[in-house]
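Q: I have 473 residues here and want to know how they pack in 3D. Can you give me a structure?
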Amino acid sequence: MNLPTRHRSNALLMAAASAGAIAGSLGTLAIQHWQNPTISGTAVSAPGTQASPVRNPALTARTGDHRVKLSQIINADDLEHKSVDLQRLGSEVAATDQALALRMAGGIASQADRSDFLRGVVAAMADHDPLAAAQFALQQFSPGALQADALRITLGKWGAANPRDAYAWANSNLSGPVRDEAINAVVSHWAANAPDQAAKWFTETGSTSQPLLTALVGSWAAKSPADAARWVETLPDAVNRDTGRVVAAREWAAQNPSEAAAAYPNPPLELAAVLADIWGSSNPADAAHWVNQLPSGPSREEAAATLATVWAASDINAAAAWSANLPDPSIRAAAVEHIAATWGAIDPDNAIAWLGTQPENLRDRGYLGAYNSWAGTDPDGLADWISQLPASPQADTARRSLGEVTIESDPAAAMDLALGMNPASQADTAGRWFRAWCRSDDAAAQDRLQQNWNTLPDTTRARLGSEQSRSLP
């Protein structure tokens, strides 16, 4: 029997709709090379031809092989590679028979597995006809992660072959975050294959899109960081230059950190942090030597603080030993503070003990960082530790750190922490937390205040009275 195009299109639609991803009819979508499915045992032929009831034995065997392989992947215990394997199989099947690929997708029970398989199908479609694949993904997949991924994959492949057409289509047919992600994929592939052309296009448009610039510079720098960095310096827009420098430096440092650092002898704040982060992750000792060579100022402090955090996460004792030998007081203070913050989240008891060995002028900022981390990772442990402390400025700092974490979840406990502080320093903290409590439960906050009113010092009464008279937002 001869079926009109509409019915043949619906056959594809049925296969993909069962995957929960198709919305609406294929309509006039030009995907003739995908249409020749067999559904429910009925052969469906192209217009003007007679369907044959005889199945090709080789085709039948190949179909069976694909289905066996699909079953093996879905039922395997190798969850780590399952997604990649499903995408690869989807591409493999669709490369020779897109209709079969869509029917197979329709038979996959798990939505996540179906989506992975369909990502591979669309990738193969894009290799053959990216325009039709893009239209298919846009019209047949419901808005969501699958559609966004399918468009990103398709536009990326299209962008590698014909970036201007791919960009024009995405710009005209897509909107919002999906459009931005697809265009970024186009530019990323364009820059990887023809960076000079992509850069010229970006400059001609006068664009100030930071995601677009990031995609362009990132892809270019992955292959030739020095060339990408040189081009960034020619950008007329200052914000574009700042963004481009950071992106180029990040890629460059991942490949050769010493070379990247040499290219920026006096890096601005954000750039210094990026270089210290990447270099410190691979070779903190060399990164430390670089930090010592930087000109004095905020960028050097930022680099030292970043290195301290990164180094402490991998080797806390080595980071602590490094900080002890820093000659610049401001650099050492930044390092101690960030080491303490990292250590406080990992091993707070030893972090506090280490801070006790530091010069007095470095302890306060260090204690604050350690207590903040401790409060964020183990509030019950910090509360128990506070209960054993005698009154002291250090105890007040710990109370303040814990209260900032608990004020939303347990405002009564936070207020108790504030009222346990030294009378000379509790007023401001008690006032802020009382007002926060009033916003969530005014009656309970007022009741607790009345219970404690007669025991409060005058300064705290004055502050809390002021908060009572203020109207809540």
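Q: Anything worth noting?
A: Residues 333 and 381 are 27 Å apart (CA to CA). The two ends are 73 Å apart (CA to CA).
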